[in-house]
Amino acid sequence: MKIKTKAALLSFVWLIGILLPLTFVIYYLYAQFEKEEETERLQHSANEIFKNISSIDLLFEENNLLLNSYLPNHTMIRAIDKTSVIKNQASNRFELFAIPPQHADIQEAYLATYHREKVMIVREPIRNGTEIIGTLEIISTPTELEQSLYRLILIIGYVALGAILLSLSGSFLLSRLLFLPLSRVIKIMKEIETSLEFRKLPLNPKSNDELYQLSETFNHMMERIESSMRKQRQFTSDASHEFKTSLTIIEGYTSLIRRWGFENMELHQEALEAVHAESNRMKHVTYQLLELAELEHESKLIYCNFDLISLCTETTQLLQPLSSKKILLFPADQSLFIEADRLQIKQVLLITLDNALKYANQHIDIYLEHQESHVCIRIVDDGIGIPSEVLPFIFDRFYRVDRSRSRQTGGSGLGLAIAKSIVTLHGGTIQLNSDKNCGTEVIISLPMKKPSNVTS
């Protein structure tokens, strides 16, 4: 069953649940009102009789004609002594004579049933001074009351039936209007599923209801999916290109070995070294791809409290023997403790310093500063620099400013992407400032304390 059908039926049942009790209440109150009105009418007749006929005359036999002038339609009036013996009576409904007389010392008014017929009975004590000498009994068949109630039932029935039909049709119409935007969303989703084409839902800024929020959320989700698909295609293309180039080189050198390698040992050795170098490079790229994927899908970090200055010193001592270029450390304080994943931060330093050593001319400077709740690491080199127009792409996977030079230096274009992922996982930022022939500056900002939204 569709949601709009459920909503329509629910609103219909809700309306019926309100309408039926309300109908019964109206009927009950109207019936009580009519009953009281009929009782008052009969009591008024009794008061008129007491006003115009004395108590002695009421109980004097053969005075039936005195009661006829006060006789309403469908009514019987009779005077009864204290022993419930009828002294006088008048009626225009002879069926009422079968009702047995009954003396009452107090005023009575009630609705009773005799022979499956409802009658209204009013009894008033007949007094002679302060002494009760009999009872005036008025019995009426409430025909008008029954007719009024019957008409009321018909009216309520027709009104309830009309209300039910109107509420049913109105509920379905209202639910259809309310869920029309949702139907459009479903239609567009099905079209997207069929055509595999990314589309956005039209938004009405004037309406800020739940459907608008749903459409807006859907559009944001489509933007993210489209961006993710675009990056995935780019990643697949770049990875394929990287492996294709290495495989082409390996295939070329193996073909040389097959043709001439066994006759020319120098060529044979050169080919084996090239194949080995490309195999190592492919292994390195594969490991970096796996590491990048692990960073993106398993964001758990092992936090600990450590001195960032000591870590930078340890990293520079590790890299300094590998290059003749000087690595200089300039800390603003003697110690700078932060809460982070020590191994991951060390890898960020290794990646950025390794890039700086490849392209620097003479030296690399590392500046450590404390800025409120963050620490700032600035790595500055005096190298060839990077053109400003390519800086927005520098953290993309497999992106390299000079592909031929990167192949000579062993770069895969994944290092900075890994570094950015690690810094982002820590809740920090990394940016790169440079221009051609002006050196490069890498600025890394890390929070000193573990962010509250990060799990370890």
From TrEMBL:
Q: Has the keyword Phosphoprotein been applied to this entry?
A: yes
Cite the SUPFAM superfamilies for this sequence: ATPase domain of HSP90 chaperone/DNA topoisomerase II/histidine kinase, Homodimeric domain of signal transducing histidine kinase
- Provide the membrane topology annotation: Multi-pass membrane protein
Where mainly found?
membrane
Name the keywords, alphabetized: ATP-binding, Cell membrane, Kinase, Membrane, Nucleotide-binding, Phosphoprotein, Transferase, Transmembrane, Transmembrane helix, Two-component regulatory system
PROSITE patterns from the entry?
A: HAMP, HIS_KIN
Catalyses which reaction?
A: ATP + protein L-histidine = ADP + protein N-phospho-L-histidine
Per the record's keyword annotation, is RNA-binding included, yes or no? no
Domain Histidine kinase: residue ranges? 238-450
Listed name of the protein: histidine kinase
Question: Organism source for this protein?
Answer: Paenibacillus plantarum
